[in-house]
Every structure is written in structure tokens, then in C-alpha cells.
Amino acid sequence: MIDTLRHMALTSLVPCAHVADMDKSLAFYQRLGFLVRDSRVTADGHIMSATLECGDSGLMLAQTDQPVDRTSQGVLFHGYDTDVAKLREELVGQGVAAGKVEHPEHLPAGQIRVEDPDGYVLLIGQIL
């Protein structure tokens, strides 16, 4: 059995994704309803990192100067929406490639698959 620390506990945990083009990534996540809560900007005005929020969800984006290999992303993001068919329609209308609504056994109301500009996969399921 693992002993937990009694004097402290995490109050939140926020994933951080390295991105090749901060502007493209911010635009993508803003389409999903995320708002920029905080950002670090260089002297010449480029955003180097940003903390995003959408409801109870948080995500950090960090600009990288290394190539991002979209074929080997080791993170899968799960999100939830109340109407994935409508969300898919809106995303496709804005030029975002969103997969068809599928109905896996664990999400009978449906889910869609979307990739962000760096190849990170978002599986967005519908809450009943």
C-alpha cells in the first residue's frame, strides 16, 4: 500500500502540451470554448506559454522550438459536451476536421475524435 502525504494534497492537475505554433493552437482550443487565463509573453510580444480554462478543465500550452512529431503523441485528452453532434457540426463549419459521431459501449450517447494542430487527440464524449 502506498502512504499518502497527510500535510498536503494536490488541489489540481493541469496537463501541458508542447505546441509548434502557439497562435494556431490557441485558436483551436478557443473554438472548443477555452479562455486564456494567463500567458507568458516574450519581449517582442510572442506568447511562449498560456494557461487555458473551460469550465472545470484546464490546459497549459507551451511553445517549443523542437519539431512536434504528430505521430507519436503520448497523451490522449478526454472531454465532455452535452451535444457532440452539434459540436461536431459547428467544428466542421469552422474548418476543423472532426470525426463522425461514434457510439462506443462506454459512451452510448456518442463521442467524436478531433486532433489539434500538433496531433494531440481529443475524444469528446456526450454526457447523458
The helix count comes to 2
Instruction: Tally the beta strands.
Output: 7
In whole angstroms, the N-to-C terminal distance is: 36 Å
Radius of gyration (CA) equals: 17 Å
- Fraction of helical residues: 10-25%
Class derived from helix and strand content: alpha/beta
**Secondary-structure element string:** EHEEEEHEE
Q: Residue ranges: pLDDT <50 for 5 or more in a row?
A: none
| Strand fraction | 25-35%
Give me the side-by-side strand order of the main sheet: 1-4-3-2
Shape, principal axes of CA atoms: globular
Mean pLDDT: 90
Largest β sheet strand count, sense and barrel closure? 4 strands, mixed
Question: What key attributes describe this structure?
Answer:
four-stranded mixed β-sheet; three-stranded mixed β-sheet; 2 helices; 128 residues
3D architecture notes:
- With 128 residues, the protein is an alpha/beta fold.
- Helix content is 16%, strand content 34%.
- The protein is built from two helices and seven strands, in the order E-H-E-E-E-E-H-E-E.
- The chain has helices at residues 22-31, 84-93; strands at 16-19, 35-41, 47-54, 57-63, 76-81, 111-115, 121-126.
- The strands form two sheets. A four-stranded mixed beta sheet has the order 1-4-3-2, with helices on one face. The chain has a three-stranded mixed beta sheet with strand order 5-7-6, covered by helices on one side.
- Strand 2 and strand 3 form a beta hairpin.
- The protein is globular, with a radius of gyration of 17 Å.
- The termini are far apart.
- The mean pLDDT is 90.
